[in-house]
Amino acid sequence: MVRSALSPLPRHVPLLRHGFANAATSFPGSTAPPSAPPQPQLASLTPADIEHFLSFLPASQVQASLAPGSTAQADLDGYNTDWMGKYVGRSRCVLRPRTTDQVSSIMRHCYARRLGVVPQGGNTGLVGGGVPTGSDEVIINLGLMNQIRAFNASSGVLTADAGCVLQTLNTFLTSKGHVMPLDLGAKGSCQIGGNVSTNAGGLRMVRYGSLHANVLGLEVVMPDGRVLRGLRGLRKDNTGYHLHHLFVGAEGTLGVVTGVSLLTPPLSPAVNLALLRLPDYAAVLSVVGTVRAKLGEILSAVEYFDETAWAVVNGDGAAGAEVERQVFGADTVPPGVNLLIETSGSVREHDEEKLTALLEELLDGPHVLTGSLAQDETQLGRMWDLREGIAEACGKAGKVYKYDVSVPIQEWQNVLSTLRQRAAERSEGLIERVVGFGHIGDGNLHINVVCGRYDKAIEQLLEPFMFELVESKGGSISAEHGLGVQKAKYILYSKSPLELELMRKVKAAFDPRGIMNPGKVLPAVAVGEERGGLEGVLQGALAGAGAGALEAGK
Amino acid sequence: MRPTPRSLLRILVPVKRCVDYAVKIRVNAQQTGVETNVKHSMNPFDEIAVEEAVRLRERLKDAVKGITAVTIGPSKAQETLRTALAMGADDAVHVETPEAAIVEPLAVAKLLRAVMDKKGPYDLVILGKQAIDDDAGQTGQMLAGLLGCAQATFASKLDVDVGAGTADVTREIDGGLEQVRVKLPAIVTADLRLNEPRYASLPNIMKAKKKPLEKLKPEDLGVDITPRLQMLKVTEPPKRVGGQKVDNVDELIAKLKKAGVLPGAA
């Protein structure tokens, strides 16, 4: 009946309404829908559960506001709130295990009781994946599982607990002549388990590849409590399906990552960092190819950030100009956009020769106006702050809507201009800045839309507009941040229904009771989807679009 | 020093290559010094000195005839001169010493005097108040002593009156700030708050390659750099041991006596 009325099914109709997630992702200023009831198969948290946790965990590792726990609910706010202050859950129980066995015992109980579980690392995620959506989930915070288990100096294989902070691991490795293969602005807080679970990208992916390339194995506690001990640390092992890859990027929806075996590259003694100022993005496009070709294997990072990003980090007007003068080493600096280029290699003279030749060529040409080269470690850090400080500066400047997309680099300026035009014409001043920057080396553009407040009107102006725009360029609506709660409902903008179907099969196989990080990554199943095919999906969407609980798949 | 024509200022900026400020210092295995197989860069106080010289030229314009950067050290020390040239120095002098040689502040001061005799005259010498590797804080003062000229150390502000041949310096001292006026030629040592150094711009780095850099040896200058001090031992400070809690004052007294801090039997 419905099918005949519409043909063909437009892919960009938001097919799957995610009422469950919408309920908890209400933030100030929005008209919150009535709270959705918990998914039918998940239980409510009871005092008996708290008692059980206290029977095998030290009291200091159980923080519960539900009796017999004695923590004030307000003290759990840090665990319940994401880094941006945008996603706020109401969990009443936070567990902080120190060992894999403790995690296993926790999961065994939660599985038997059908309690929702939210694995949590450094809580620096940007899509609400690390915080609960309701009040019955148990948060398992891995922060106390922070032991470095082993390091093999000849192979560079590091084995570590999931709760190890990225920067701590890096400090340890540099004392051994190695480095972590990934680096991101959140390094002081994010944990390797979370990095793995979100397949974090970061600044060095252009050189060392993604975590899929560097994770050799994982130790994972399955939803039923059994421990998958995959930390063999072998470079090559083609004996069956490579299960650990499923957990990389699964955002905690298939199991709890408790241990990581990671390949780490040697520390490069020679590091150079150059900051370039170019007149516009067209110049950037002309230059990026030359940079890669001339630097070749020594290129370790290439980052783009435009004039809006400079202003939000360094200040508008005179304040920003003062920083410009110092960092570019000149009295007057022409306006424009910026590129940060880092090289890492084993022989200083070799790298300097290549870099100097490149910089001379670029300065002679029409595309690069000026630039500077870091002369010591302090300047190196300060130049990196110009790029790494953007997210935090945006957060301080206002309330941020973040878009993390993969689009061909030829399209970056089009995307930014289109969005800026829309904001100028239709946001009635609510959108204050549209900040553009990204990992131009791997096509990952970040857009931070900075507003005076979170507002449903702004959200509706931006979504699904942004995702439709990205889809039209054949891109990904979430390059590295993941889907979490924010983008679960938009998954079909970047994946096909068949891919979603297969993902659901994997989820059902690993987590048959659906207790792992409920409401994240995969949208709740719409009524009728079990029938499969577009017809079923459409009918389900139309049925689910009304009020009422969605019947989740088994 | 020969009196200089008061219409033009020639500035000398000695710079030192040391272990980079951001690197964690470790004592070497032989306990003779610190591990030097780490990143090196220009002494941060010398960066400030170079910056001040460049700013003086920006303020006084044609009254400044030139800025010369000089360094005393092994062949790698040349990188430091490149940085100084890229920041705005006009020419550079490298007094090359053997790789493993220890050059003490007095030797440095003697070498600087010799360079000034050979390449001078210089009206103003600006250098960092101390180097962050040995923290000696002696070179500027010794140089002034050898030259018999004025010195104004720990400068947080510097103004030069070329016509009058004087420099007004605000010094950071324990009690606060002291203002002195010195006659040129003078030695000024730079303190942290004198300025914030600029970064080396690419155009200046390229220009720096064409600026003159002269190499000299201590023998050429007739200076003996043999150390007069013998380093006996370098160790890290003792590791902090955990404290103890005591239950009452009597126990505290007993423990203090036992540790020999208070006289009497425990």
From TrEMBL, chain A:
* Cofactors required: FAD
Could you tell me what this protein is called? Answer: FAD-binding PCMH-type domain-containing protein
Q: Which GO terms describe its molecular function?
A: D-lactate dehydrogenase (cytochrome) activity; FAD binding
Q: Which residues form the FAD-binding PCMH-type domain?
A: 87-267
Report the sequence similarity comment from the record: Belongs to the FAD-binding oxidoreductase/transferase type 4 family.
- Name the keywords, alphabetized: FAD, Flavoprotein, Oxidoreductase
Instruction: Name any one Pfam family assigned in the record.
Output: FAD-oxidase_C
Automatic annotation (TrEMBL), chain B:
| Chief location category | mitochondrion
| A GO CC annotation given for this chain | mitochondrial matrix
Under the heading Pfam families, the entry gives:
ETF (PF01012)
Tell me the keywords, alphabetical order: Electron transport, Mitochondrion, Transport
Q: Which GO terms describe its biological process?
A: amino acid catabolic process; fatty acid beta-oxidation using acyl-CoA dehydrogenase
Cofactor binding note: Binds 1 FAD per dimer.
Cofactors needed by this protein, per the record, are: FAD; AMP
Alphabetical list of SMART domains matching this protein:
ETF
Tell me where in this chain the Electron transfer flavoprotein alpha/beta-subunit N-terminal domain is found.
32-225
Instruction: Indicate where this protein resides in the cell.
Output: Mitochondrion matrix
Q: Which PANTHER family match?
A: ELECTRON TRANSFER FLAVOPROTEIN BETA-SUBUNIT (PTHR21294), ELECTRON TRANSFER FLAVOPROTEIN SUBUNIT BETA (PTHR21294:SF8)
Family note = Belongs to the ETF beta-subunit/FixA family.
Quaternary arrangement and interactors, per the entry?
Answer: Heterodimer of an alpha and a beta subunit.
- Could you tell me what this protein is called? Probable electron transfer flavoprotein subunit beta
Source organism per UniProt: Calocera cornea HHB12733
